[in-house]
């Protein structure tokens, strides 16, 4: 899939939004990624995840594991493209765990999947969980890497789209000066 096609999808689905946003970090930015929008239309989700799967097909993974909630749809669609199993991890008392009878086998080869990463916090926790269960993490797969390729998980990172969105301190935000209303996007409080 060409960069141009991916960029067009980010805009047409509304996943990439422009405006004046208050991020969870407290900083302001002129762009926001709402990657859940990439999974509204299954045809588009399939297109994106099969493009990503092509990059990792050589790894011959047994299973995809993703952090809930953001990674669930992405993990499922990626697993379908890779023709492997799919589990998701969810927080129990603040710590990621495999519930619902999900269990990894010893030495199983896993890809950790997430729709979008910024600092990669959830992904790092899921990598630890997978290793703790005795499986091997062959890599991380994401649709959007918002770190601009600066995150180092110590294992290969496969992404379809890399971006490094400029963020501002509220005192020096050029968008505040234009008077554009500040919006708090996303689901995390
Ligand atoms: Zn601002």
Give me some keywords for this one.
binds zinc ion; 189 residues; three-stranded antiparallel β-sheet; six-stranded mixed β-sheet
Describe, in plain words, how this protein is organized in 3D.
The chain has 189 residues and is of the alpha/beta class. The chain is 28% helix and 30% strand. The strands form two sheets. Strands 5-4-3-6-7-8 form a six-stranded mixed β-sheet, sandwiched between helices. Strand 6 (109-117), helix 4 and strand 7 (136-145) form a beta-alpha-beta unit. The longest helix has 15 residues, at 42-56. It starts with a helix and ends in an 11-residue tail after the last helix. The model has no long low-confidence stretch (mean pLDDT 94). The structure holds zinc ion. Zinc ion (ZN) is lined by residues 20, 28, 170, 173, 175-176, 182.
